[in-house]
Amino acid sequence: MAGFADRLVAWQRQHGRHDLPWQVSDPYAVWVSEIMLQQTQVDTVIPYYVRFLARFPDLASLAEAPEDAVLALWSGLGYYARARNLHAAAKRVLADHGGVFPGDVAAIAALPGIGRSTAAAIAAFAFGGRHAILDGNVKRVFCRLFGVDGWPGEKAVETALWHLAEALLPEREIVPYTQGLMDLGATLCRRSRPDCPCCPFADDCVACRDGRQAELPAARPRKGLPERSTVMLVLRHGGEILLEKRPPSGIWGGLWSLPECAPGDDPVAAARRLGYSAEPLAELPGLSHTFSHFRLAIRPVALAVARRAPGAGEPGALWLAPADAVQAALPTPVRRIIAAL
């Protein structure tokens, strides 16, 4: 498409976003924002980003912080592997790069939690590196603009989109060009209700010309979302509740949560297996939480702990008052359960 980059840069300078809190030259701030923005919208990210930078203003402060402190500030943002990877990457930069965030795109991509597009965005915004990006917004723009059929998650479609991204990359003005791609997808070429009349490429866009905005890009092939269920034990003793540290990997890895048992298990017997003699208090309102690949039905059950067995309360278990517990690094549904107490 003739003059694509020049037209995009001109549009971005006049109509793009220029007041986002991470639009700075500090590589650390840019990196944190790009990780938070993975699979999360700007409006959701901004308050988390501001709080995170206030607590961890530089890479050294993040690397030296305990993981619990990092996860606590991430709590509610979801996709917690991002926070663990961010923390691990900060430690890696401190150890391998003397605490200086690397400017080479290959070195950036080698850090935990950073893929090809995220590495390119960090290199572009922080160092002016000439590298193509292809996040979700950009995929949507290219699919509509050039009439690319198929689900972008398919390997062949993604490869075709990467070829487009590389071919369109200009030799100069990389920062406004990269920001322009993101802004176009976020503010005009939205997933639903795209604002085609305001788009600088409306006259050239295949989807606009053919009325295919709703079908491009193609949706992920539909599959029934599996349903799972669990019972969460709200063990109460002396005005406090029991939290358990989850394993470092897997769902909610590294967060504090409530003990669980299978739906068919007796909650009292499950508490006894944990080392606690307990009696039922009440069954609390159930709730549901949807992950990217399954839906979890949660049945909370409150139990009164009469006594602790010898050895109970080893590392990995924590008794806290509910008001203190909600400040811990908790999964969102667990926070809702405890807040309701």
TrEMBL record:
| UniProt domain HhH-GPD: residue ranges | 36-187
| EC supergroup of this enzyme | hydrolase
What's a BP term from Gene Ontology annotated to this protein? base-excision repair
Cofactor(s) needed by this chain: [4Fe-4S] cluster
Coiled-coil region list? none
UniProt catalytic activity: Hydrolyzes free adenine bases from 7,8-dihydro-8-oxoguanine:adenine mismatched double-stranded DNA, leaving an apurinic site
Listed SMART domains: ENDO3c
Keywords from the UniProt entry? 4Fe-4S, DNA damage, DNA repair, Glycosidase, Hydrolase, Iron, Iron-sulfur, Metal-binding
Known CDD domains for this protein?
ENDO3c, NUDIX_DNA_Glycosylase_C-MutY
Enzyme Commission numbers on file: 3.2.2.31
Family matches, as Pfam families:
HHH, HhH-GPD, NUDIX_4
Q: Does the keyword Cytoplasm apply?
A: no
Q: Which GO terms describe its molecular function?
A: 4 iron, 4 sulfur cluster binding; 8-oxo-7,8-dihydroguanine DNA N-glycosylase activity; adenine/guanine mispair binding; metal ion binding; oxidized purine DNA binding; purine-specific mismatch base pair DNA N-glycosylase activity
| Highest taxon of source | Bacteria
User: What does this protein's record comment on cofactor binding?
Assistant: Binds 1 [4Fe-4S] cluster.
Extract the PROSITE patterns matched here: ENDONUCLEASE_III_2 (PS01155)
Q: Which family does it belong to?
A: Belongs to the Nth/MutY family.
**Functional summary from the UniProt entry:** Adenine glycosylase active on G-A mispairs. MutY also corrects error-prone DNA synthesis past GO lesions which are due to the oxidatively damaged form of guanine: 7,8-dihydro-8-oxoguanine (8-oxo-dGTP).
Query: What PANTHER family is this protein classified in?
Result: ADENINE DNA GLYCOSYLASE
Output this protein's name: Adenine DNA glycosylase
Organism of this sequence: Parasulfuritortus cantonensis
Q: Which gene encodes it?
A: mutY
